[in-house]
Structures are given as structure tokens and as C-alpha cells.
Amino acid sequence: MALQIGKILAIVDPTTDKQLALSRALGIAEQLDAAVHAYICCYSPLETSHFLALKRAEIARHEAWLDRLLESENLGGVEVTTQVEWREDWREGLAEAAAKEECDLIVKTAFEHAEPGRLLLKTSDWSVLRSAQSPVLLVKRESLVAVKRVLIAVNPKVEDDRHRRLNESMIAFAKLLREQDDAIELHAVSAYTGAEPFTHPPELAAMIGIDESQAHCTQGSPGDVIVDCAKLLQSELVVMGTVSRSGLSGLAKPNTAEQALDRLSADVLVFTSPD
Questions:
Q1: Are strands 80-86 and 149-153 parallel, antiparallel or unpaired?
Q2: CA gap 127, 41 in Å, rounded
Q3: pTM summary value
Q4: d(Cα 16, Cα 169) in Å, to the nearest integer?
Q5: DSSP string of the chain?
Q6: Given this model, what pLDDT does residue 195 score?
Q7: Which fold has domain 7-109?
Q8: What is the pLDDT of residue 48?
Q9: Residue 142, exposed/middle/buried by CB under 10 A (0-12, 13-18, 19+)?
Q10: Which of 102, 108, 149, 250 could bridge across to 245 with cysteines, CB 3.0–4.6 Å?
Q11: Rounded Cα–Cα distance for residues 178 and 3 (Å)
């Protein structure tokens, strides 16, 4: 399974001039010779007889601001398209924009979340993960220093097709990384409990195509194991997969990516497998 990234959707936050996601998307696009689609969703419940005029004015204001923002960025020859949309449900707008533009990757600035926000499904990061049809890169590092150490979390013992496809996608990403920069140090981690089949490091290393010393098989919950291993290695990027869940099932049982996300200081790339 080959992984191709031809277009990246960057979610632009119109409330700040500090745009980690846009800067990271432009850097990735320059490396991969990809295009960037910069997306803003704005909305205000305007109760006025001049609603349409005010709506047009707000959209025009955001478009002008986005144009100025892009002028200040180092585009590096990257082709950039823009979209400012007026919509109350930004998640729905984002999903439609990513599908229409045929984006292969979504990039978003990550935010720290308190527990009450997660329980109410109000966190924007998790909302994107639950609805995305493409991999999602959540940017946490402010530094633009190149990634030197990557940790990929896989489960070699999965039997269902959805989890197998996630593993294949992450392995394809590992191969893409090596093609782009052979100086990147690639590690893999697999968690297991006492009742689960154990994966030996040589097996995990062969699966990813890395040295045995870079394969880490540890007993414990996946979220804890991934966070601890990333901290130990000082990884700049953590890659994991998640089977998207929505509704009450998602509320009752957070998935591994959600368990680990707020505790990681590295950027997090999440491959999703929707319901």
C-alpha cells in the first residue's frame, strides 16, 4: 500500500496570527511537492435585518486577513488555495472541504483540553479525529526544527480488517519518511496486556523494516505505553491509528489516540478508520 500526499488541508484559526498548522502544512508540502488548501470556517448568530450584508462583510474581512497572513508566510513555491466559509457546524464544513479538494492530509493546531470538555465532546481536536476521512496531523511543537525521531505505534496482533488497514497505512508512512529523509530515526512501539499475545521485538522490527534496537514491546495500556516511550525517546512526532467512534460509545470509552493526545508534547499524526 503506497501513501501519496498531493494536497494538504490546513485548518486556519482566525482568532490568532500564530498559525502553527499552516506553517507546518507549508513545510510538509514543500518537502513532498504537494499543494495546500487553507481553510477558515467563521460564523456568528447575527440577529439583524442586515444579516446578509454583515455575513458578506465578515467573509470578506476573513479573506483579506488570510491573504495578508499568507503574504507573511514563506510559501517556498507551494501552490496555495484558500477557502473562507460561513457555517455554524465547522466540522461538517471541514469534512466537505477535505472531500471536495481531495485532500490526503489534514493539519490542525492542537490544544490542551480539560476533562469536562472531552466528556461533552466539545474539544476541537477530538471532533476532527472522530469525523476525518484522511490522516490528521495535530501540531503541538512551536519549533520548526526538522523531525529527527519518529515513534510509530502499531498492534501486530490485530485480526479485523479495519485495524489491519491502519497498520498498513502507518507502515506506508514509515516508508515514505525513509524515502524523504534517511537521517530520520524511526522507532516502533507495541503495547500488550498479560492476557494478550506477545509480540517480540524482532517481529515488530521486521514488520516496520527497522533495526531490532528500535522496536519496543512493552506491557501496559496502549495510551500509557505510547506516552512513556515517546518521552523516553524524545520523539518529535508520534504516529498512531484510531478506529473512529461517535455518539455515546465514544463518550463512554475514549480511544487510544484520545487517551494519549493531551499527554504528548510531540506532534501527533493520527490515521483514522471511520465506523
A1: unpaired
A2: 15
A3: 0.86
A4: 33
A5: ------EEEEEP-TT-S--HHHHHHHHHHHHHT-EEEEEEEE-----STTHHHHHHHHHHHHHHHHHHHHHHS--TT--EEEEEEE-S-HHHHHHHHHHHTT-SEEEEE-----HHHHHTT--HHHHHHHH-SS-EEEE-----PPP-EEEEE--TT--SHHHHHHHHHHHHHHHHHHHH-TTSEEEEEEEE-TTSPPPPHHHHHHHHT--GGGEEEEES-HHHHHHHHHHHHT-SEEEEEEE---HHHHHHS--HHHHHHTT--SEEEEEEE--
A6: 65
A7: Rossmann fold (3.40.50)
A8: 67
A9: exposed
A10: 250
A11: 12
Kindly report, residue by residue over 93-110, the tens digit of the pLDDT: 898 999 999 999 999 998
pLDDT, residue 266, reads 92
User: What is the per-residue pLDDT for 3?
Assistant: 65
For residue 244, the model assigns a pLDDT of: 60
For the chain, residues with pLDDT lower than 70 are 1-3, 47-49, 112-124, 126, 144-145, 195-197, 244-258, 274-275
DSSP state letters, 59-72: HHHHHHHHHHHHHH
Q: Do domains 7-109 and 149-273 have the same CATH topology?
A: yes
Query: Hey, what's the cell of 57?
Result: 462583510
Query: For residue 133, with 0-12 CB atoms within 10 Å meaning exposed, 13-18 middle and 19 or more buried, which class applies?
Result: middle
Residue 63: the pLDDT is: 95
Beta bridge partners of residue 241, listed in sequence order:
271
149-273, CATH topology level: Rossmann fold (3.40.50)
**Where in the chain are the domains?**
7-109, 149-273
